[in-house]
Amino acid sequence: MSKTEVKAYAAHANDADLEPFTLSRREVLENDVKIDILYCGVCHSDIHQVRNDWKNSRYPVVPGHEIIGRVLQTGSKVNKFKEGDLVGVGCMVDSCQECSSCQEGLEQYCENGFVGTYNGKDKHLGGHTFGGYSENIVVREEFVLKVPENIDAKAAAPLLCAGITTWSPLTHWKVKKGDKVGVIGLGGLGHMGVKFAHAMGAHVVMITTSPGKSEDAKNLGADEVLISKDAVQMKEHANSFDFLLNTVPVGHDVNPYVSLLKRDATMVLVGAIEPLDPIHGGGLIIKRKNIAGSVIGGIKETQEMLDFCGEHNIVSDVEMIDIQNINQAFERVTKSDVKYRFVIDMKSLKN
Amino acid sequence: MSKTEVKAYAAHANDADLEPFTLSRREVLENDVKIDILYCGVCHSDIHQVRNDWKNSRYPVVPGHEIIGRVLQTGSKVNKFKEGDLVGVGCMVDSCQECSSCQEGLEQYCENGFVGTYNGKDKHLGGHTFGGYSENIVVREEFVLKVPENIDAKAAAPLLCAGITTWSPLTHWKVKKGDKVGVIGLGGLGHMGVKFAHAMGAHVVMITTSPGKSEDAKNLGADEVLISKDAVQMKEHANSFDFLLNTVPVGHDVNPYVSLLKRDATMVLVGAIEPLDPIHGGGLIIKRKNIAGSVIGGIKETQEMLDFCGEHNIVSDVEMIDIQNINQAFERVTKSDVKYRFVIDMKSLKN
């Protein structure tokens, strides 16, 4: 298969800095869309993969799965997209398309495993896939999203991961107008959870350990702020939440949050791919409470989210960087020192 | 208020044996039913309360919340019951009847707290309530169940706690014909879970650490037995269960069980009112799995369960004892040495 060389940034080993790298992209096949990458969000997962925190990294790692760009070229059978369209690519570039999950539009739960935008198995060129910290990308059309032209394209990048990761559970668990919804943790995911829950008409409570985040949370759309270290406040809110979106990205003690749920209500984990502190069975049993998990979202619901963002003019709060500053950005993400997502201006790659 | 003296067995302190005791019952009020107790099941909770394991026991403790008897007397406004009716009383004898949970028929989740059949707050006589290890009991009619005459009355006693505790989650989570249902742990609760799930038409898998329980499990209605210590078997069943009923009564490692669930499926805890070993967030996140809890069941669903038992001729497997042997029975329950529930023949109390 013919290939083209593409500029990118890659990490070549655990703990190594990202540096300029040239990767190969496949030729545009009949169902493919080739996208000129304008912007790419910096997700915490990018850092986990570069640092091999999940023990499944394959080097060189070219991260990036919050991709916004314009269509450069389409394959002969592509009819959903044309040259110049504003499009997005998220965490997936392929899946089996045949299993029950794929058939239901839930490719993120593909029974045969979806192909990650980076660090996935590349069935065309062999080896592994390379992500959006690069000039362009070739993706089969089923995994390309239409991005509304009326929203700020650079601030739309994080919708493809941070956005859909919070949108999917909010809609799957049917959050509706008037529900009392708690968003735990105010980072890249949490700030999108607050915006979406607010736009859905919920009464949104930002639940955070940091009193300093109160004003920001309210500006993002939170109706209230609950400081989780304050036992008195926590008790006042006991058994009162219809839904909790837990965006904390590390193992932690979820028992205080479980105590906030109403009977039959659910707390969904979207960040903590780690062991949690011991959960007390009684906390679930006494009022039939639920703890669940959720990972990103399917292509159909991602498109629904983007359309909703177009209607409600929702984007992420972002800080733009040049690709040359990616290693410093990683350091700052690690310290939660970003409001709320870095986005790389990919023009800088051409310098 | 006038009272009558009633023979019973009570524990007077933590770790003390149960011994003969005389308690007072209130007079029959207009909405009350007085029940001559024929049989009373021995629940593991009885032991926890006698031993103050949950740190909320009030002595003397007269245990017993799996009560079967015949109506002796009814209050002037009672019209659902008449003298001689075969009836049951479970874990609750009162609730506020006004909160949203009570209004939905879910008195077990009463927002103001239900009144336990024993060790609850007695609002008529003061002090605390006394359970079914006694000659008779006076209960408001809303908390009295009709027991079908065609089933074995003594073996029906455990339906009032072990039965409804497993029935309620199986029906709430809509277990249906053809579902693959796992019942974890083969004790008093587990053996009822197997019987019910089998009668509902599910493909029932008994999940146990003990290969020795296989034959019994199949006799109770299990289609398969999965030995949870066998990593190969566990892997074969990975991601395949529609529902798991976890009856293990102590804290344990639930991660191997979570791995058995299908996408979107739920494991419900009904026994472990203790801290669980750390749960890995990834196990829930990767396939949107759920862990929940459930406690006993409401009066309406308890009646539905009893009616179902009448239609399907379902009762518990029991071993009958005299009240004089209650302390030895407690010892045997503690060692899981009973198939599957002790029931006290309350005639023995008259000796």
From TrEMBL, chains A, B:
<feature type="domain" description="Enoyl reductase (ER)">
    <location>
        <begin position="13"/>
        <end position="296"/>
    </location>
</feature>
<keyword id="KW-0479">Metal-binding</keyword>
<dbReference type="GO" id="GO:0008106">
    <property type="term" value="F:alcohol dehydrogenase (NADP+) activity"/>
</dbReference>
<dbReference type="InterPro" id="IPR029752">
    <property type="entry name" value="D-isomer_DH_CS1"/>
</dbReference>
<dbReference type="InterPro" id="IPR011032">
    <property type="entry name" value="GroES-like_sf"/>
</dbReference>
<dbReference type="InterPro" id="IPR002328">
    <property type="entry name" value="ADH_Zn_CS"/>
</dbReference>
<dbReference type="InterPro" id="IPR047109">
    <property type="entry name" value="CAD-like"/>
</dbReference>
<comment type="similarity">
    <text>Belongs to the zinc-containing alcohol dehydrogenase family.</text>
</comment>
<dbReference type="InterPro" id="IPR036291">
    <property type="entry name" value="NAD(P)-bd_dom_sf"/>
</dbReference>
<keyword id="KW-0560">Oxidoreductase</keyword>
<dbReference type="GO" id="GO:0008270">
    <property type="term" value="F:zinc ion binding"/>
</dbReference>
<dbReference type="InterPro" id="IPR020843">
    <property type="entry name" value="ER"/>
</dbReference>
<dbReference type="InterPro" id="IPR013154">
    <property type="entry name" value="ADH-like_N"/>
</dbReference>
<protein>
    <submittedName>
        <fullName>Uncharacterized zinc-type alcohol dehydrogenase-like protein</fullName>
    </submittedName>
</protein>
<dbReference type="Pfam" id="PF08240">
    <property type="entry name" value="ADH_N"/>
</dbReference>
<dbReference type="Pfam" id="PF00107">
    <property type="entry name" value="ADH_zinc_N"/>
</dbReference>
<keyword id="KW-0862">Zinc</keyword>
<dbReference type="InterPro" id="IPR013149">
    <property type="entry name" value="ADH-like_C"/>
</dbReference>
